[in-house]
Every structure is written in C-alpha cells, then in structure tokens.
Give the backbone structure.
Amino acid sequence: MFTPPRPRLILALLLSSSSAFAQSFDEKVSAFVAKYDRNGNGQVERNEFPNEQKARFHEMDVNKDGWISRQEAREFFMAEKDPPGADPKKKPPMRKRREFRGLESFGDYDLEHEGRFDRKEFSAYLFAMCDRNNDDQLDIEELQNIPVPDKKGGLRDGLARRALKDLDKDGDRFLSAEEWLLPEEIFQAFDDNGDGFVSKDELIQDQLERAGGLVGWTSADEIMTRMDANKDGKLSKEEWQGTKALWDRLGPSKEGFVTKEQLERHLAYLQGILLAANDFVQRYDKNGDRRVTREEFGGSDAVFDRCDTNHDGILSAEDGAGRR
C-alpha cells in the first residue's frame, strides 16, 4: 500500500536541498575570492583579475564600481547554473544586461578606462547597440544596423550578410557575443588617426557628422550675421555657406529658406548630443550646482573643450554646440 510522504518531510527535504544549493554557491564564492583577492579586503579588484579575462570581470562587476563583491560573484555563479528542480530542457533566463544608452554607455565597455576602445571592446559596444531585443544574439536585421562612417559608406553594401556568413560558426543564422567580432575594415573606418583605437572623441565626431555636422559657429545669431547677406532674417540656398547635407537636415521651407529658429533648434540638438554623450552635468557635478568645472570632470581636455563653447571653463545646460 502506497503511503504518501508527510508534508513536514517534503518541506524538510526542500529546505535541505535549497540550503545545500545555497551553500555550494557560498563555497564557490569563497574559493573565487580566495583565489584573486591579493590584498585581503574581501573583494576582487580590477588589478587583481587576470587581464586576459577582463571581459568576464566587466560582466561580474554589475554596478561598475571597479571591484567584484561577494554578492556580485554569488549572483553571477547562480545565474550560470539551473536551480534545483529546473527543467533542463528549458533555456535558463538570461542575466539582465545594463540598458544600452548610446554614448552614455561608453564607460561600460571601456574596460581599461582609457577613453578609447580596442577592437574587442568596440565590438562589444556595437553588439549591445545592435542587439535591439536584448536576446544576446544578432540576426540579419540587427546586423544591418551596424554603423559605418559616412565617408566609408561603400562598406555598408552587403556588410550584414558577409558578417553572418563569415562569423556564424554553428550555422544557426544568428551571431552570439562569442561569435561576433567587428570586421577590421569597419574598425579602421572609425579609427580616424590610425592609432589602433577608437576614441570617444572619434565616436562623438561621427555622431555629430551623422546629425548634419557643425556649421563652424557657436550661435544662430553669429551664423545669421555672417551668412544673411541681404539682412532679411532668413537664409537662402545661395547665402548658405555650409554643407548640402546640413542644409537638407535643417529643413528649408517650400520657398527655400532657413530661419534663425531652425538654426537654434539644430544647435540645441547638437548640444544635446555633446552633453548626453559625456553625461557631464549628471555624472560630474559634485557640488550640485548644475555646472561642471574642469576639475570636477577630470577627463579628456579635448572632450571638455569641445563642449565648453563659451570658453568660460564651466559646462552647463547653457553651453551651445561646440566648434568642430
């Protein structure tokens, strides 16, 4: 005669299994910390981790504070293994990845904090940019979103299909993060100075060019003063001294004119690119006055100067789009 197990016994077994499961991860975390924590502070810092595994460090350091805490290590190891009773046929849920925020996410992928990407770092950055559905793989449609600098536009032709053909090792018509590596010719197209890296300045410059570029002056008033030959308060195509691409982006009226208000809107848009790209005010305003000094910023002088359009040594929402 079958005797069903008593509820208390079931509960005890479940608690025992869960406790053993948690204990196994605690032991794994302790072994991990003991292996890498050279200074004995109970956490693993960037300079204690093997350089060849820097991508793994970056993934484990969830809050990007430069070290891996015991809790971060525990969550990482638990995400790698199915919990007790999980269906082995079911794909385990993916670890939640930080939201990609364009140039504001630059620091998340600049693993050495040098203000520039090597090819692998830039590949990871573009992978996150193109992975619109956050499923940790790129399909043919997402691959078509790989950016290519306008000056190298010919490289776009067939790029997505070539990448899928060359890199899809398992033939499933998707590229995983492990399979993906940005084609060398695309990396070189972004590397303007040929130093083997793609700097944040180079990415900002590329985005500004995609937005129509800068006309060379800091305010709509200055542009109108220099270009509006007949002083009628608007610019004709004959008076325009900028590029055709920028003229088209400004959206001239049916009569073929661009107004001061249109220039102001475009400059405000470019200002937004520059300030958002570096997240100056939110990230570096240490005293809460909604302004960032050079000392508070502490980063690249070139980037700071690009955004400090009135050259007062302070960055704020009032700064216009910088000189090119």
Observations:
- The chain is about 45% helix and 5% strand.
- The domain at 19-80 is CATH 1.10.238.10 (Recoverin; domain 1).
